[in-house]
Write a structure and sequence with these properties.
The chain is mainly α. The chain contains 5 helices and no strands. The radius of gyration is 16 Å and the shape is flat. This is TetR-like C-terminal domain-containing protein.
């Protein structure tokens, strides 16, 4: 939320044709995705941490993308989320909780 431009640079290929250095991408993965997998591991069945981390990562990505879009523009009429930190925080927490509960089931 503090840096939508950085988020766009990381996930949206904001610079066509730019491919980051492989070592830099590896370091970034270790500092983000691998950290997430380690944090997810205790909450999921043995052997499913990589899958769980991927599902949490994609859920977070989708929720954050929608929040950034809605904060930058007016949400569509009748949208189930009302603009505001409480609404976004709640749906983010609910989304991640649902993914982890589903993985435990």
């Amino acid at each position: 939320m503090e840096s939508p431009a950085r988020y766009a640079f990381m996930f949206e290929r904001a610079v066509p044709g730019y491919e980051p250095d492989k070592d830099l991408r590896f370091q970034a993965r270790c500092a983000s995705y691998d950290l997430l997998a380690r944090r997810v591991r205790p909450a999921v069945p043995p052997g499913t941490a990589a899958r769980g981390a991927y599902l949490v990562w994609t859920t977070m990505h989708g929720l954050i993308s929608l929040e950034l879009t809605h904060r930058a523009r007016t949400p569509p009429p009748g949208w189930f989320l009302q603009p505001g930190d409480d609404s976004y925080d709640r749906i983010f927490r609910d989304g991640i909780t649902a993914i982890l509960a589903g993985l435990r089931a």
